[in-house]
User: Fold this.
Amino acid sequence: MKPIFTIPNILSMIRICLIPFIVWYYFDTTIEYNLLIVTGLVMFSGLTDVVDGFIARRFNMISDVGKILDPIADKLTQASVVFCLCTKHTVLIPLVIIIVIKELFMLIGTLVILNDVDAETPYARWWGKLATVVLYALMVLVIISDYFGGFIPDIVITFLSSIAIAFVFFAFLSYLNIFFKKDNK
Assistant:
């Protein structure tokens, strides 16, 4: 059994611990440069996501805990930031709905797979990581726009959100394919 406290798992835990700070700085407008701080925290979170995966693969630190902890950190961060952004940009609400539906199905699928004694712990695939990168880019872009007075109009945010929805939906369909293949074995 691999140790739980590996560098990749610690980085995932750090990402989870950043979430309250991201939310606090986002809403506390009395803090000078609050949105720049949020941007930095979100970018740092995204960077640690890339780094933890690299370290896990490169130094053989992949663990069942990490396979679960990493996507949880991603989803909690994404959900928190997108919910924050929805308070100013209601055009992002469909994105939130799609993310919530996808993640509920992913949770159910994962629980079904884990219920099988012989099943391997599911892990993130390239299409899920690609959807994550697109979501992080959208979130950072909207936060920076808000900091500079909202230079991106909601119609453009809606368009960019539609692109993110397409990537999330593609990832969802790809994961569904894996779940159905495992179910048919």
Remarks:
- Residues 5 and 65 are 9 Å apart (CA to CA).
